[in-house]
Each structure stands twice: as structure tokens, then as C-alpha cells.
Amino acid sequence: MSEQQKGILYAAGSYVIWGVLPLYWKFIDDINPYEILAHRIIWSLVFMILLVIFLRKTNELIVQTKRLFSEPKQAISLFVAALVITVNWGLFIWAVSEGHIMQASLGYYINPLMSILLGLFFMKERFTKVEWTAIALAAAGVFFMTISLGVFPYISVMLATSFAIYGLLKKNVRIDAIYTILLECLFTLPFALIGLVYLKSMDMSNYGMNQDSFLLLFSGALTAIPLILFTAGARRIPLSLIGFLQYIGPTLMLIQSVFLFHEKFTTTHLVTFGLIWTGLILYSVSKIMAYRKHRFL
């Protein structure tokens, strides 16, 4: 299996897990969203530390951490990435808890467009006419939905932008995925602890001996595993391809929002997603043809 094929599998796997996460957050939405976010950071760090110990990679963690901090630009990129993904996590948890899963879905449909733009301007990636047509169709779908909603979708745009920036920043960090995730959680741990202390002092904490709190213990694994897969995938395939694989996640979210949480799916949504999926099919076919052509050269 080629490195590109591995990258596609890793990235697709991460998006499948992210796509079903609304179900998990719905089970624990009796807890304050910020408290969920803080515990998500803490338990992700715990999970990553245990994983590094289990894999007997503590020495390698030290080596790669020293390598990271020997290059200030990489260290700063990872620190900023940690802050950006924390904002993304918080927005997503809040959107799910407030019943805005379809808006979250829209955000992650917009995200590939953001990733493509970042790939174009920062990574100097270029596209064929077919691929530009696909991008235009997807953009038209998102624009149509935005206009039809009647208000600017701040949540959707912020989710899309934050995750696209995260992908770009992680593309430039040259240490293994496991260590980057652990360090990201370590960078944001002080903010999580401060938040928990504040919530406790204001008597706003719901964490304790209850079912929701028990389920929250698994947030570390459910957070870290897709991030590891995403990071491993992002290092192996173009940012533009990462962007279009992202459609897996919002599609699963959309299915849940309509069939499980009974949010309305109107003609506007039908037109929007029809345009987006047409663009996705065109782009996918273009990539498959290019891959086969390259393979047989």
C-alpha cells in the first residue's frame, strides 16, 4: 500500500469517527459544554500519556519534543494549532448541546472549501478545470444555503475556518502524530484546569458520581484516536484532498440530524447538498483518473 493510500485511509477513518460524535455528545449534554470541553482536554492527555507508555515510546517522546522546541516556528505552529482545535471542539460541543447539529454539518461542509483555499494560497497547490468545476459547485451549494437561511451562519463559518487552519498548521509540524496530540493537550491543559476551578467556584459544575460523568471518561480516546488518524493522513496527502474527504463527517452528521434528532430537511437543503455531492463526485473522479494515469506511467 502506497503512502498516499494510507493517508486516504487514515483521514477517512478520522472523519467517520468525527461524523458519529454528535451521538456521544448528546448522551452527556446534561453537563455544561465548557466543562465537557475541559474534561475532553484532560482525558485526552491522560489517554495519550497511557498510549505512549504502552507503546514504550517515552524516550522517543522526549527526543521529538526536544526536536520540536529546537525549531521555534514548529513549536509556535503546534501551540497555535492546539488553541485553534480547542476553539473548534468547544463550538462543536455547544452546537450539539443546543440542537444545532445541522448547522455543525454545514460548517464541516464549508470546511473543505476553506482547506482548498488555504492549500491554494499557502501550499501552492493547483487544480485542473474539472477540479475547479467541482469546487465551484460545492461553493454554490454552500452559498445557496447561506442565503436561504436569511442570517450569516457564524457557527458554521467559525467551525469551518478553525478546522481548516488547524489542518494547515499541522501540515507544517514534522513530528509523529502521537506526540503532537499529546503536546497539544499539554499546551491547553492550564486553560482546562482554570475553567474547571472557575465552574466549581461558581457552583456550575455537574461532574460527579453520575452516568454522564462516567461516559465523559471515554472522551479522551474518542478525541485522540481520530486526531492521530487525521494528523497521519494530513502528512501523506495534499491538503485539497484532505478537504474533500472531510465531506464524510458532515454527511454522517446530516443523517443523524434528520433521522435521529428530527431537524427539518427542506428543499433548500436538498438543492445545497445536491450541488455539493455533484462537486464531490467530479473531484473524486478527477483524482482517481489522475492516480491511475500516474500509476501506469
UniProtKB/TrEMBL annotation:
<feature type="transmembrane region" description="Helical">
    <location>
        <begin position="214"/>
        <end position="234"/>
    </location>
</feature>
<feature type="domain" description="EamA">
    <location>
        <begin position="158"/>
        <end position="284"/>
    </location>
</feature>
<feature type="transmembrane region" description="Helical">
    <location>
        <begin position="7"/>
        <end position="25"/>
    </location>
</feature>
<keyword id="KW-1133">Transmembrane helix</keyword>
<feature type="transmembrane region" description="Helical">
    <location>
        <begin position="130"/>
        <end position="147"/>
    </location>
</feature>
<keyword id="KW-0472">Membrane</keyword>
<comment type="similarity">
    <text>Belongs to the EamA transporter family.</text>
</comment>
<dbReference type="GO" id="GO:0005886">
    <property type="term" value="C:plasma membrane"/>
</dbReference>
<feature type="transmembrane region" description="Helical">
    <location>
        <begin position="37"/>
        <end position="55"/>
    </location>
</feature>
<feature type="transmembrane region" description="Helical">
    <location>
        <begin position="106"/>
        <end position="123"/>
    </location>
</feature>
<dbReference type="InterPro" id="IPR037185">
    <property type="entry name" value="EmrE-like"/>
</dbReference>
<feature type="transmembrane region" description="Helical">
    <location>
        <begin position="181"/>
        <end position="199"/>
    </location>
</feature>
<keyword id="KW-0812">Transmembrane</keyword>
<feature type="domain" description="EamA">
    <location>
        <begin position="6"/>
        <end position="146"/>
    </location>
</feature>
<protein>
    <submittedName>
        <fullName>EamA family transporter RarD</fullName>
    </submittedName>
</protein>
<dbReference type="Pfam" id="PF00892">
    <property type="entry name" value="EamA"/>
</dbReference>
<dbReference type="InterPro" id="IPR004626">
    <property type="entry name" value="RarD"/>
</dbReference>
<dbReference type="InterPro" id="IPR000620">
    <property type="entry name" value="EamA_dom"/>
</dbReference>
<keyword id="KW-1003">Cell membrane</keyword>
<feature type="transmembrane region" description="Helical">
    <location>
        <begin position="241"/>
        <end position="261"/>
    </location>
</feature>
<feature type="transmembrane region" description="Helical">
    <location>
        <begin position="75"/>
        <end position="94"/>
    </location>
</feature>
<feature type="transmembrane region" description="Helical">
    <location>
        <begin position="267"/>
        <end position="285"/>
    </location>
</feature>
<keyword id="KW-0813">Transport</keyword>
